[in-house]
Amino acid sequence: MVKPTLGVKTDEPSVENAFESPTSSISQVGSIPSAASASSAPNWIQQPSAPPTQTPAQIEAYRNLEFRWVMLMQTLKPAGARKQKKVKKIVWEGVPNSVRGRVWTFLTDANARMIPGVFEKLASRAGDRTAIMLKDLERLFPDQPHLRDPNGSLVKLLQAYLSMVPDVQYDRELAMVAGNILSLSPEEDAFWTFVAVMDNQIRLYFALNPIQLDVDSQLFSKAVEWMDPSLAKLLFEQYGVSPHLLCKAWFASIFCSVLPPSHLQRVWDVYLLEGLGFLFRTGLLILQSAKRHLMASPTFPASALSYLTRPPADLFDPDPESFINRVASMRMRDDELKRLRPKIEARLKQTNTPQRPQIVNRDIIKPPTILSVHDTKKALASVS
Predict the structure, then answer these.
(1) H or E segment to which residue 318 belongs
(2) What's the rounded mean pLDDT across residues 177-203?
(3) Separation of alpha carbons 197 and 320, rounded Å
(4) How far is residue 247's CA from residue 279's CA, in Å, rounded to a whole number?
(5) CB neighbour class for 259 (10 Å; exposed up to 12, middle 13-18, buried from 19)
(6) How far apart are CA 356 and CA 353, in angstroms?
(7) Are 261 and 24 in contact (CB under 8 A)?
(8) Cα 233 to Cα 379: distance, rounded to the nearest angstrom
């Protein structure tokens, strides 16, 4: 298997049709639960349907991988674990759904941010975005009542986070990301994992002046052009698809509204290990897979963005592992994108308001860490 090199504003145009009913966050892959995990699962977690009949060898392999993950998380410290070869190897082998929530907490080192009692205090601070939030949740999670509940865990988690980080503006992609994490973890664990994912990966996408999204969308459009110039011209020039809106729908939600459930969870597994470069490669593979449809539809321009943000399930490999392998094999000029980033940043800073957040890390593969563990605890000191 080839692996990649490590490395809303209210007036903004929307893609309403892309978010009417995103895929469920529960993965069907690796969903054989252990007796302990099944009995301890919170009753608000929607249980997956029965997996296909497994052979004894498949069940044994699943249990073995599950055991290896449990032992690894007990013996390694989360800080710096992503850089260790044994962690990278086992992530690429797979993550059993029974331990996936714990694995995401481990890979993001979320527990280092946890301060007992802070989540409940933050969640009690009602904000003025609840009405908009509930409207979004009705559309985003039509089959998951526990995620739509006005007094439920998802609203509680989002309110807590927005109370903690006032410079982040609410958007429905926030709800998608939080809902996916919450589907696999108890609410307080989910909250701190969500905080870690935001701090380490995507928080700048939701800033009041989201220059990170502007930069990444221009870099991604350049990556598409390098991969397939004719497709880039068709998509961005003839069809007029906005790279900004496409990347917002894809990257800000970490593909929650795009991929089938089992594919989504595997993309998250690897993304939390590899970083932004893996999202770029995922997007490139989706475009490559959609090319035939894009080229063959004479009346397609009006619906191009909707198609790409809510593609049909048959666009993807039936096997999520095959899909992940294809993503990993996508060639991308990482070094050239890294050199191009500061030039795009400088140009955007000249044409946009100076209050935009500063981009600290210029590595295309490793997005900037917006808030360190120390800064998170310092920001919450007054709450605790």
Answers:
(1) none
(2) 95
(3) 22
(4) 10
(5) buried
(6) 6
(7) yes
(8) 45
Amino acid of residue 161: Y
CATH of domain 208-337: 1.10.472.80
Q: Rounded to an integer, what distance in angstroms lies between the CA atom of residue 266 and that of residue 108?
A: 15
Measured distance CA(173)–CA(249) in Å, rounded: 8
- Looking at this protein, which amino acid is placed at residue 202? I
Residue 356 three-state SS: coil
Same fold for the pair 118-205+371-380 and 208-337: no
Number of C-alpha atoms within 13 angstroms, CB side, residue 18?
27
CA 29/CA 51 separation, integer angstroms: 8
Quick one: 366 exposed, middle or buried, by C-beta within 10 A (0-12, 13-18, 19+)? middle
100 pLDDT more than 50: yes
Mean pLDDT computed over every residue of the chain = 81
Tell me the C-alpha distance between 242 and 181, whole Å.
28
Q: For residue 132, give the 3-state DSSP assignment.
A: helix
CATH of 118-205+371-380, one of 1.10.150.240, 2.40.110.10, 1.10.8.270, 3.90.1150.10: 1.10.8.270
Comparison of pLDDT for 14 and 383, the residue scoring more: 383
> With contact defined as beta carbons under 8 Å apart, do 304 and 251 qualify?
no
Q: What is the mean pLDDT of residues 264-268?
A: 97
> Which residues contact residue 184 at a Cβ distance below 8 angstroms, ignoring those fewer than 6 apart?
25, 26, 45, 97, 100, 101, 104, 190
Give the start-to-end residue ranges of the domains of the chain.
Answer: 118-205+371-380, 208-337
The mean per-residue pLDDT over the stretch 113-140 comes to: 87
Lowest mean pLDDT of 27-41, 97-111, 247-261, name the range. Answer: 27-41
**What length does the chain have?**
384
Cβ–Cβ < 8 Å for 180, 268: yes
Model pTM score: 0.79
356 phi/psi in degrees, rounded to 5 = -60, 145
